Amino acid sequence: MPSDAKNRPVYVISVAAELVDMHPQTLRLYERKGLIRPGRSSGKTRLYSERDIEHLREIRRLTQELGVNLAGVEEVMRLQHELDDMQGEFEAEIERIESELREQAQRPDALPGVDGRIDPRDRPVYVISIAAELVDMHPQTLRLYERKQLIRPGRSSGKTRLYSERDIEHLREIRRLTQELGVNLAGVEEIMRLRHQLDSTRAGLESNVRRIQEDITERMTKWRTLPQGDVDGLHGDGEDSDQD
Fold this sequence. Notes:
two-stranded antiparallel ribbon, flat
């Protein structure tokens, strides 16, 4: 989980319940269903963070304002927790890269690799008729979902809709939510918005990691090509030079 102040567990359940205008028993129910994940004190007392409070207010908005059923809320909060966890994983990855950089300074002959590949699941390849057949939907349904921004197909140079494997995954997820879980369209919109945000965040974090790795590689390559005297000067031995 991210290490910012929003994730610090500080509120006991009575205070948290008052902040979100819910009964403490409701908070316990949501915890059992995995919708929120409060911390624990050394004495096992539940402690809620600002992030938990935000999540509880979001649950109230989904259920009271949008009429999303509990199955839909569970999907939304699962995705929200994935986003929170991803940020923590990114911070851990940055720490790992920084550690690797320090090690590289001691082993200049070994350079980190750079992986600039694009996920093949994002390549737009299926025309709308094929995509509709793959997910057992009518093409008009796919157009409706696009207008509501539940999916975002690519376009060919001739403006033909082209769907990727990830779009197909999203369409199958929409069908599961509506047909199997009975989630209403407002809930589906929230869930797919979070899914798109999750995909974008993941792509952005991976891009940042690659950029950092490229920067490390470039620095280490330059370091290796410096004359030995300059390299020694960069390290420094902490001793003053003799002066007359």
